[in-house]
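Note to self: user wants both folds in one dump. Writing first protein now.
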Amino acid sequence: MNKRNFCIIAHIDHGKSTLADRMLEITGTIPKRLMRDQVLDAMELEREHGITIKAHPTRMKYKGFIFNLIDTPGHVDFSYEVTRSLVACEGAVLIVDAVQGVQAQTVSNLYMALDVGLTIIPVINKIDLPNAHIEDIKEEIIDLLNVEEKEILLVSAKNGWGIENLMERIVEKIPPPHDSGSTLKALIFDSYYDEYRGAIPYLRIMSGSIETGINVRFIKSGKNFEVQEVGYFSPKKVKSEILQTGDVGYIICNIRGAKDIKTGDTVIESQKSKVESQSVKPLPGYREVTPYVYAGIYPADGEKYNSLKDALEKLVLTDSSLIYEPETSVALGFGFRCGFLGMLHKKIIEERLEREMNISIISTSPNIRYKVKLQNGDTEWVENPGQMPKPIEINVIEEPVVKAKIFTPPGYIGSILKLCEKRRGIQKSIFYHRENMVEIEYEIPLSELIFDFYDTLKSISQGFASLDYEFLEYRPGDFVKVDILVNSKQVDALSSIVIRDNAYFDAVRLVRRLKQVIPRQLFEVIIQAASNGRIIAKSRVAPIRKDVTAKCYGGDITRKRKLLERQKEGKKKMKRIGMVEIPKEAFLCVRE
């Protein structure tokens, strides 16, 4: 079979998208006049942030062979995109930067590819740079993959050096798709929603074929649809007559319900007999993703609740690592509790909601998922501080702990160790890969890692350090819930769960920050932080004062006193019935 399905995996900014550009150029898939840098990064956010967010499939033709390439993200927050892409391939091109060498996400992505059983082609990129350490990087790859030196290819994706050798190696090393019969079985590895044509699934045809006019069944949802169009990506959608075994493409079935498609579902041809349909075993799908970060997302305009719901349904099609469920807040009304893989993932989802879906949102402070063991022996999972049981009912609170791997040049070890110790980390090992690269392993509470750890790490290492982490276990800790009260009314969206030793300092910081962002009213605004029924921090927003005595020109002093007393009584009444509108910026204070 003259087909080769492969993906490109690497750490962030090691040149995946640039390599894909050169392949598209060499194969003539895109004319030179239409070429631009990172052509597969079609989303506006991808180009702005300079990272790949979505996996992008594309078909190329090279010397009689059909290449189905999937360019994958490199950031740890989008690792689920990588796992979905790997299942649709037989091989992977592993790129390592000739300057930075093997990084945290390099190792993580490699292990994911090996678990799926892919053929790995190791490539050293950016060999044109003057400070490239090619021989050192070769030794790292040899130790990592246990391969011979001649199997490692040297390329410069920017200049196009060695790209054709790589494409020849893909033809030689990566096996063709396995033909397992004529019965249609296709795996949905991604999808997106088109306003005019409905939900469009991306498929990898494992066996059989699919063409316009046939009826197909989605096994998980149990629904049948007629195929109206089939095609592939090159890199835009190209209509085709048929998709056969080994092909990667899309089908359009006029699926109007976003929930009718599940990533990892198996598509089969509709059978006349229910018995025949039930006898078809679904393909191995994807593991259920476990979010690390939870936050409430609410429409800024309460009337946009249904629009936000529809927008989230459509986003889940393109990003199945996002989960959401309805929740209500006294301060913010109706909204959704959403789960994300990390803070960057959260930021991207929020930007897509506001820019792609045109919905103005309010996002609460992020939280992690705590395991709360009660005095009566029950266990509760707490993703929202508002769900925290009363202190008298709690036996122990456990937090998630992750195993973090940090790759850094030796000059920054001291600063990084201080950062990890400050974040309650426990050092497990320090390993020198070569003279200019060190691997540090720590066990760190997830709550300390997800907020600004990555940014701080990049800052103290001048951008050279890299981070990867994986869940380890839940461990007990001493936690308390901190509530925020504005004029004695609790604002549930500002509540947080913190370490007891840090509760006072976090509370003082937050009430001071809130004092700056809550606008002055005609009455006094008291901001308080409470924990375990006790006020631990307080701040005051002074009222706007009108000079009611300005119109008194002379006369007895009692005239002015009467006016001041009347103003005082009016302010007391206003304080009782007045509402303090919390601005959007206030809900960002908890994480700043």
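First done. Writing the second protein, which came from a different request thread.
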Amino acid sequence: MIPDSFIQDLLARVDIVDLVDSYVPLKKAGANYAACCPFHNEKSPSFTVSPTKQFYHCFGCGAHGTAISFVMEYQGLGFVDAVKELAQRAGMQVPESDRRGFHDEKPGQTRTLIDVMARAAQYYKDQLKRSPRAIEYCKKRGLTGEVAARFGMGYAPDGWQNLQEVFSDYNADELKIAGLVIENEAGRRYDRFRDRLMIPIINQKGEIIAFGGRIIDQGEPKYLNSPETPLFEKGRELFGLPQARQALRETDTAIVTEGYMDVIALAQNGVGNAVATLGTATTATHVTKLLRQVDRIVFCFDGDNAGRKAAWRALENSLEALADNKRLGFIFLPQEHDPDSYIREFGKEQFDRQVAQAMPLSDFLLRELAQRCDLTSSEGKAQLIYEAKPLLLKLPTPLLRLQLVKRLAEASGFAQQEVERLCDLRSYTPAAPPKATRSAPSLTRNLLRIVLQKPALARLLPLDLLPDTAERPALVLLNKLVSAQPDVPSYAYLREQIRGLPEASLVERFASELLDRPFDEAEAEAEFVATLERLREGDQKRAFAELQIRVQKLGVAGLTAEEKQSYIRILTERSNRS
């Protein structure tokens, strides 16, 4: 776990204007900076970056966050990886990093392994230029020099120890740890990749973490990937994701294929938003990573039994990562084709049509379940619900789940309520109307705006006076967060502290409203004091009204000693004011 103090120091060190400008050119717009939003297509700028508050907000799509959020969304990284990326940019060392299962990794080893992989990649690229046979193979596959350069392709020559040309110490531990060499039982080393077209596997930071090797002409295995290493976990990585980043934003769709040659062939023919899994079934991590960048994923598989099985595994592993605003689709190509051969024979337009008409997840799920059950019998209909239950329970999307339940009810002959009960799903009931607030919410709205302008004031919030309004939970949370820090934290730090909490969306909305408002510290403090005074007056009025009701019912003698003192004090104060 990364300490909060490090997050605060990191956000203080990184200037969000410089960060965003390195990805998206910004233009000065008053006190802020503006650009066309990098997270959705637009013609006029609605994306604003605040240098004073160190956050961004898009008035078009609602994207909002700090420097960490920007790196997460733009590069599709998780929180820890985004922090590491920013720390490296700022020249800071993350105190505690995620080893991802490789606990025996030595300090500084990651950097060494990345350097080793980069040197090997350069060697393979040089060898491709010198190999007429490998060049002829690329031409036969229809690959141009431009696409080969885009994907950093190379060639591993035939032979046992060619990497000795690059690494003088062929017995160095790093070569084995990186998966470049294999050591046999006798202790003799040899190159893992021989006589193969070499395709680097690149992470989101542009670093080479593994290789895929395609055999030239005939041989087994046809495709050979690097083993899992401290740099590379195949269940987490997707081939071609860095190269596809721009096309993903433009299309809002990711096409997932089974092989890296499919991705390269699609890119060669103008389809740049394709990625591939690396010798493993699609995982929930793959899906989560893609859904950070797009709203739609289309899985493209062969139409044979193996392709349908792979599609079903992808469906099962995707369910938990879905949201109601995200969509999955499935393409099943003719059995004699894969994406590479299909687009070369039929062209980009026909392939794009396949993507547009991809079978929705709900149709594929119900079709596959129906094929497993005999829906002409009672037993088959019962089996349909039995098979559907674990899938429905995985779905976190209430709207899609409701639609599936309705269609399952139609197919099985059960009532919708019966399907919900048999699958242990709670029926949808409208939310209860919100409770009436005890006082005008404008006062707490005003307090929240002031506190977001000057977080130090959150320490002075009288929590017992705050009425039960929509803003109260956010104010209480900000009071707690600011009071826990010896120094006054920035808005950016507070935003990271409430990431994922229910209060985050409300805070984001109020913060965005402040983007174009001038801020005067003295005026903010005066307004804060005045607002608290109005809260106190309102609280006193409510207390007096409650006491008057008790006096009317019980008389003054019926009040407790404390209530009598309060009643007399309020009467005296009112008399003095008049």
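Dump finished. Worth passing along: The radius of gyration is 31 Å.
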